[in-house]
Amino acid sequence: MSLWKEFTKGFVKENPLFRLVLGLCPTLAVTTAAINGVAMGLAATFVLVGSNVVISMLRKIIPKKVRIPVFIVVIASFVTVIDLTMNAYFHELHKVLGLFVPLIVVNCIILGRAEAFASRNTVFRSFVDGLGMGLGFTISLVALGAIREYFGAGTIFGVNLMPASYEVAIIMLLPPGAYIALGFMLGAMNKLTKHEES
Amino acid sequence: METPSLKLIATLTVTCLVAAATLGAVYMVTKEPIAEQKRLELLRALKTTLPEYDNDPAASSRVISLTLDGGQTRDITFYYAKMGPDVVGVAFVVIGQGFQSFIHVMLGVTVDSEISGIEVLEHAETPGLGALIELDSFKEQFSGKSLENSKLVAGNMAVVNDGGDVQAITGATISPRAIVQAVSAGMKLFGDHRAEIVGGPLE
Q1: Does ipTM exceed 0.90?
Q2: Looking at the 3D structure of chain B, how many domains does it have?
Q3: Domain residue spans in chain A?
Q4: How far, in Å, CA of B90 to CA of B85, rounded?
Q5: How do residues B106-147 score in pLDDT, each as one tens digit?
């Protein structure tokens, strides 16, 4: 596969959220607003790129039997690094996402890419894969967050987009709204990409 | 082919050592900025909750062990606002059980047992609903209230829905109620132990 394809596959064809349906826990929890999606997505991308690169570098020296514990240690370290960094330099954002950042450790996208891709591919390809997958995840989170914010609060990125008479649908900000929005988006995604499969 | 267990152990040990060293380094670098952010946050909360002061309330604090109504003892940190040599108000953290989280509220009280302000420090209430307790319009209505001038229900301050006079938020009663209960309990605590809290030497 060409490098470009490796990079873009995470956007649509193998989109972690809409195609692989991985990492739903943080997805459903944080996407109450578009901006949360940006932050969570970028944090996950950083971890994904970092862990992919390190795991790819180590792929020949890690014995098969202990690979999963090693992957987890690498991933958890990256997550803690970003958790501390955000707390120190983006404190306001950390207050909003603080609960969810540690959850990146158990986000199956990260471990999934480590096992399925980084442990069998070169460092550079793994870097590209991590970046593409991470950005695909980010775009999905932002889209989901924007939809929920639009219907639940009448705003996108805090900008008011609904007429004043609009009665906000609070359910979209509550957990059921996450499932409703995700369900519709999965459906739309399947419909749009149908021709590629046949 | 079997990998000898010694190699497995060595791999795991080295991985963990490297990870530990990295985390230690990052922790050392971010420790100061995080502490500074926490201090600024505390100072912001104190500024909005305390009456006008000319000292550094974050620096003039005291931990007092108080015996509560239930009989248990709790250590509470009090932050003092001073004008010249006189204490004009104190602030302390009260906690209420909200809809899905504990709500931490900084409560500022003047020496005359009036609320000078409240600030929501920490919570994980429903966004767009219970989280509206962060709105200034909700928080500001507490300023100037006291146990004497409030409409009390069974001796406590209460939201309008419960017969009190604190305006709750449309569609969300649980989170405002939690705050009112916490604030009311805090005011009682202050009233019961006023001499102990306000008097006594400060460093």
Answers
A1: no
A2: 1
A3: 3-147
A4: 14
A5: 999 998 889 999 999 888 787 667 778 888 888 989 988 888
